[in-house]
Amino acid sequence: MAKKKTKPDFSKPKEEQQTKDSQNEFSKEVEYEGLPLVVIAGRPNVGKSTLFNRFLHRRIAITNDQPGVTRDPVEATAFLNDKPVHLVDTGGYKLTRDIGTKEAELDDYVVERSLDMIDRADVVVLLLDATEITGEDEEFILKMRPYTKKLIAAVNKTEGGRNEAEAWNYAKYGFEELIFISAEHGDRISELTDMIVDRCDFSQVRELSADRPIKIAIMGKPNTGKSTLSNRLTHSEKSIVCDYAGTTRDVVEGNFSYAGKAFHVLDTAGIRRKARVHDDVEYYSVNRAIKTLDECDIVFLLIDAVEGLAEQDKKICSLAFERGRGIIFVLNKWDLREDQGNKAVKAVREWINIMFGQMDFAPILPLSALEGKGIKDLLNTAINMYEQLTRKIGTASLNNALQDWLERYPPPASKTAHFKIRYMTQASVNPVSFVIFATRPEVVPEPYVTYLKNRIREDLGYDHIPVQVEFKASRQKWEDRGQA
User: Fold this and answer.
1) CA angle 283, 253, 271 (to 5 degrees)
2) What are phi and psi of 337, to 5 degrees?
3) Which of 40, 196, 262, 455 has its CA 20 to 30 A from that of 5?
């Protein structure tokens, strides 16, 4: 559905108009219900994630030659022949196990999750590798027998006709039809798309016009309970929960509603210090996690309440602050602490405020994702924070406040650092930024900049979020700008 464009109002100051148009453009986004569920399945390393990315025309799932990279199902809305479907990239079906190890336990979770997705699917794309048929392929094909009517068998890695002779070996398993494709090079992807669309029922698809959801990125070092919190919030088991550090690799997304507000959750991979990242897959996982800072509104920075702060917490916090994202310090596993009273909470807050001097405005909340304690407080705080992130102050009100601040604490003056502050505008929301125009912006002392930032936070209601202030040169007063 095309978005209705807002006609510019040239009677408003340019800066204010640009911000308003930006708000209108992103305040709504199209969502759907009743989408056909299309699942890509197969053993590890056959190209499932590459095919998933091909359908989406962008890289979401991590791809690597290492088998078993995808663990949690990765989901997105894809448009196939201009029709929306709910597309899922599943973890690979593995037979080989190191019985008794954490890795084997994790493989069991992955297989169980993949089979559950297949059972729920409307269409299953069974992806096979033309270069070899393995025992995992044969067992997985047997498990797919009950789903023959919704199955499409696609043999990958046949670009330019390569390996087609070998690909025909899959005919002995009784598939009614085989399609030879190349997920990496795009060969016959349009034909595969046609086959998928032909098997989908779009009669139940409904387009929803809803307020843009509040986007939450759950971040922190490995094993702090990010996936447990994600599952708790979404009332699902989308993210695999295991005490094996580094379980989550792709960004796992989910949705839920609370207090009449829609939320979109991004469960990210745990971020460790660069010196401890030796694996290519972990490198890409960490980079994907960091990129979610460009997509989210608020970061839930999970801190292990027993182990305390990690060096990487500072890095995440710094990156989120630079982007103007809302940040909530979440003290997870609070139920495991011996001292859980108000004094303990106060002591931890004081310690965090010392460690993160510029972040003293950010809320700090104790929580137990496992037991569900503190969830309501966390979500209420997030709703309040999002309201601040999207708050727009009218230019007239803003400049009335500015005049009051200047009278209350006049700018310092000297022969070498004389300047006049003319007016200010709000440049953007989410992130919240302001532009203050002065005659000589380069000589405005830092303490006075800090004073104005504090006044913006305290007097205009931005007390829990980062506020960016930029100074620019101007000799015109606000009232005279339209007179030139």
Assistant:
1) 30
2) -80, 145
3) 262
Q: What is the largest CA-CA distance in the chain?
A: 91
| Helices 375-389, 226-234: inter-axial angle, 10-degree rounding | 90
User: 23-48 burial, b for 16+ CB within 10 Å, e for fewer?
Assistant: eeeeeeeebeeebbbbbbbbbbbbbb
Q: Please enumerate in sequence order all residues whose Cβ is within 8 A of that of 446, keeping only pairs 6 or more positions apart, or say none.
A: none
CA separation for the pair 305, 373 (Å, rounded): 14
Contact by Cβ (8 Å): 52, 72: no
Tens digits of residue pLDDT in 343-387: 888 888 888 888 887 888 999 999 999 999 999 999 999 999 999
Q: What share of the chain is helix, strand, coil (3-state, %, to 5)?
A: 40, 25, 40
Q: Distance from CA of residue 104 to its chain's centroid?
A: 29
What's phi and psi for 265, nearest 5 deg? -105, 135
Q: Which residues have a Cβ under 8 Å from the Cβ of 462 and sit 6 or more positions away?
A: 388, 391, 432, 456
pLDDT averages per 10-residue partition of the chain, 484 residues: 36 37 40 88 89 83 43 80 92 64 63 85 95 90 93 95 93 94 94 96 80 88 86 75 45 85 81 45 54 88 86 83 94 88 87 84 93 95 96 93 95 81 94 94 92 94 94 73 48
Determine the residue type at 65. D
| Residue 206, Ramachandran bin (φ over 0: left; ψ between -120 and 50: alpha; else beta) | beta
Q: How far apart are CA 251 and CA 253, in angstroms?
A: 6
Distance between CA atoms of residues 48 and 68, nearest Å: 11
CA distances from 209 to 29, 32, 250, 257, 406 (A): 7, 9, 28, 15, 44
Kindly give, in sequence order, each residue whose CB lies less than 8 Å from that of residue 327, ignoring residues fewer than 6 positions away: 298, 299, 301, 317, 320, 321, 359, 362, 466
Q: How far apart are CA 111 and CA 93, in angstroms?
A: 6
What is the separation of C-alpha 399 from the centre of its chain, rounded to a whole number of angstroms? Answer: 36
Closest by CA position to 26, among listed 297, 324, 292: 297
Q: Is the separation of the CB atoms in 396 and 353 below 8 Å?
A: no
Q: What is the pLDDT of residue 460?
A: 95
Dihedral of CA atoms 395, 399, 405, 408 in degrees, nearest 10, equals -150
Angle ∠(56,292,249) on CA atoms, nearest 5: 75
Helices 189-199 & 48-56 angle (0-180, nearest 10): 80
Burial class from Cβ neighbours inside 10 Å (0-12, 13-18, 19+) for residue 262 reads middle
Report the alpha-carbon angle 408-414-416, nearest 5. Answer: 135
Is the pTM higher than 0.85?
Answer: no
